[in-house]
Amino acid sequence: MAHTVNTGEKPGKGEYSCTKCGFDVTLGDRDKMPPCPNCHNTSFTKV
């Protein structure tokens, strides 16, 4: 099972996919994971 990243965490640079709707979020080195802009879910997996 893939590691889950939650809203508020700083998982590092990369692309993350919402575990609920599949929307992709791209983060920089220092960015905090936001809630999903599409469905407001709070968990993601690294793409």
Provide structural commentary.
With 47 residues, the protein is mainly β. Helices cover 0% and strands 34% of the residues. The protein has one domain. The protein contains no helices and four strands. It has a four-stranded antiparallel beta sheet, with no helix packed on it. The protein starts with a strand and ends with a strand.
- End-to-end Cα distance: 13 Å
Strand order of the largest sheet: 1-4-2-3
Structural class: mainly beta
Strand content: 25-35%
Kindly state the percentage of residues in helix.
under 10%
Instruction: Count all strands and give the number.
Output: 4
**Number of helix segments?**
0
Oligomer: single chain
Shape: globular
How can the largest sheet be summarized? 4 strands, antiparallel
Gyration radius over CA: 9 Å
Please indicate the count of domains: 1
Question: In a nutshell, what does this entry contain?
Answer:
0% of the residues lie in helices and 34% in strands. It is an all-beta fold.
Question: Can you tag this structure with a few keywords?
Answer:
about 45 residues, mainly beta, four-stranded antiparallel sheet, globular, 4 strands
Outline the secondary-structure elements.
Elements: E1 4-6, E2 14-18, E3 24-27, E4 43-46
